[in-house]
Amino acid sequence: MDKSVFTANRRARDLGLTHWRLPPGPLNAITDVAGVCVGHTTLIKGEGPLVRGRGPVRTGVTVVLPHAGNLFREKVRAAVYTINGFGKACGFEEVRELGVIESPIALTNTLNVWRVADALADYTLHHNPEIGVSTSSFNALVGECNDGYLNDIQGRHVHAEHVWAALEAASAGPVAQGCVGAGTGTSCFGWKGGIGTSSRALAIPQQPDAPAPTQAFTVGCLVQSNFGRPEELLFGGVHVGRHLQPPPESKSALENDSGEKGSIMMVLATDAPLDARQLQRLAVRAAAGLARTGSHIGHGSGDFVIAFSTAQRVHHWPDSLLTTQTALADEPRAMQWLLPAVVECVEEAVLNSLCAAHTMRGRTGHVRHALPLDQVAQLLQNPILS
Q: Which domains does the chain have, with CATH numbers?
């Protein structure tokens, strides 16, 4: 495997992109939303020809925790949205129905969904032994992308201990991006993709007579990118893909493909006090951010969004029938800022997943090359292309 990590610490902003209107948070990561934690387990093992069930292994799991407490006992408001349903997402229907998340969000590869869901169930049962005995059951939430081009996907190499390790490692600090966790073996626009993240720090103007002139909210996004044709790639509106193509050894598989077969998982977080309906409005706008990277959301693409708010918790055993919670008094004013924040976050997170990834060689000599960032930067500086 190519050990090059020359792009590991670079991000889309390092290439001189200036088209975004809203400022990022301090980390420019989903963890800028207070309380959110992210953890990865990365599995890289073996070289050479594919031996089904044994390797080579280029996969992993990524977990996103809306807070570090007990999510079953203290749920968060949430929504899910399916842009294109060519995927194996687990747990979406109950979120659609009830509007809450009661599980860590796990991302992995397509054929590992059920093992990861099983591990989440074991983890939650360990911390909540009353489940299924004296209270209700549990809804595991798992998303996926197909990493079979580089990985022995039939081996389903992500096991319970790997999920638990990601959960134990989850932290609220900087988020590793690129070829880590669930993004270890994924591709994006024919190049090496992976995990990407971004955030926006909002100062929303209030009415002139309000106690404070602005209201601060944060929106964050984490993606697992695995989609797109090379010629479609856009960086800040510049058609990079028309002028920059992957080497022939990795491009040939895409040239023989009859349609876009890829996926993306997008996780949105905010500290704005949104209900499930409002969170779904945010989730819908993720498609606009995806389109800004060049995706047309192809026939065989699975594009899924999970959105949640950390503003308030929904207790499994509430003290009373009624409760008082903060809600938006002026939804139009808030959405005027929150919706474009989602669009910008998704776009930048996808581009970061490309910029942070390094070249990786997987099964049977398959390779995904890192996007050559120096060449991208030169294209971005060409006024004719902008």
A: 12-316+327-380 (3.60.70.12)
Catalytic residue among 263, 295, 309, 353: 263
With beta carbons less than 8 A apart as the criterion, state whether 274 and 59 touch: no
How far, in Å, CA of 265 to CA of 226, rounded? 9
| pLDDT tier for residue 255 given thresholds of 50, 70 and 90 | very low
- Which member of 225, 303, 309, 353 is catalytic? 303
Strands (E), the chain: 37-45, 57-65, 74-85, 100-101, 105-109, 141-145, 187-188, 191-192, 195-205, 214-226, 263-270, 302-315, 360-361, 367-368
- Which residue type does 280 have? Q
263 is catalytic: yes
Please give the pLDDT value at position 260. Answer: 60
From the list 219, 222, 221, 214, the residue with the least C-alpha distance to 201 is: 219
Q: What is the pLDDT of residues 58-117, one digit of tens each?
A: 999 999 999 999 999 999 999 999 999 999 999 999 999 999 999 999 999 999 999 999
CB 215 within 8 A of CB 206: yes
